[in-house]
Amino acid sequence: MSEFLAEVIGTMILIIFGSGVVAGVVLKDSKAEGSGWIVITIAWGLAVTMAVYAVGSFSGAHINPAVTLGLASVGEFSWAKVPLYILAQIIGAIIGAGIVFLNYLPHWRRTEDQGAKLAVFSTGPAVRSPFSNLVSEIIGTAVLVMGLLFIGANQFTEGLNPLIVGALIIAIGMSLGGATGYAINPARDLGPRIAHALLPIPGKGSSDWSYAWVPIVGPIFGGIYGAVFYKAIFTGEYNLLFWALSVVMAIILIGAANAELKKGHTLANDIEDNLVGENERNENDVAEKSI
């Protein structure tokens, strides 16, 4: 099997199981309806495990452009192969999403919630705040890539590595995924989002392209920074890329924190103004009654 086909199949498997569990949980009248976040995170971890078992010996089972770019940025993967890998991953994700659509055919028309239908295919934030959502995706993907490098630095019983990688995905989902749905993979979000836009899903709404840049830019930056950070801190390979990305990371973090603090200050002022206005109205009511 070629590396290209392996990445197509591996990413397809990832989406079949990953988007499939989301469909089971959120679509109306599914037997798994309402199963919740824990079921989703465990199934996504197992999805990665199965994909790695399937194609790991053929392509390394990157199944994620952030992983491919992260490894290439530290010399662990050839830059010449990067475009082909990313193309294969996106194609595989689109195919996988199409298979999930077919599997749940009767449930799309029974589900009125357009957001739930979109959630089967792509991620969305619990609280829409693009700068902070970007930070969440950066952190999650940096942890992912560092975790993969941690795992690669250890010797396990043959065949155990995919299970450890799956456990890493479950841990990221349970601990960091609640903010954005943890795309941590541009192909995992972009491919199914394209499928959502193209497929004849009954009663579907917008594909939310205004948010689509977050689960692309965040994971790409996070994947590269996670790999560079690992090499710098754990192997002492400090270089210009590490320092440049660290400065950018600091700017992003400070900017996101500042934006949220401003929102909090504005909210506090609004609450205070409302309370003052309510008190004034109460005082006027009392004055009128006394007259």
Automatic annotation (TrEMBL):
It is found in: Membrane. InterPro entries: Aquaporin-like, MIP, MIP/Aquaporin, MIP_CS. It is a multi-pass membrane protein. Keywords: Membrane, Transmembrane, Transmembrane helix, Transport. Its main location: membrane. The keyword Transmembrane helix applies. The chain crosses the membrane at residues 6-27, 39-63, 83-105, 138-157, 163-184, 211-234, 240-259. Belongs to the MIP/aquaporin (TC 1.A.8) family. This is Aquaporin. It comes from Planococcus salinarum.
